[in-house]
Amino acid sequence: MDEQRIKEHLLISNPDFRRLHEEHQRHEARLAELAAKPFLNQDEIVQEKDLKKLKLALKDKMALMISASGKNI
After folding, report:
1. Predicted confidence band at 39 (pLDDT cuts at 50, 70, 90)?
2. pTM of this prediction?
């Protein structure tokens, strides 16, 4: 099964994966809002860095779940 199909399966069947995905999407949306601003204040710069780190950590967790599910399917 390819990665996209595994991801779709996990979104439907695994509440933990779905929660991680939704959180990742929220961070991505906030980063897009920040990117649309012409200038960021100091708090927004820190927030942007933190969101990027959190988003990457979520992506890593989801990748591990996808990898583990691919072996089990």
Report:
1. very high
2. 0.87
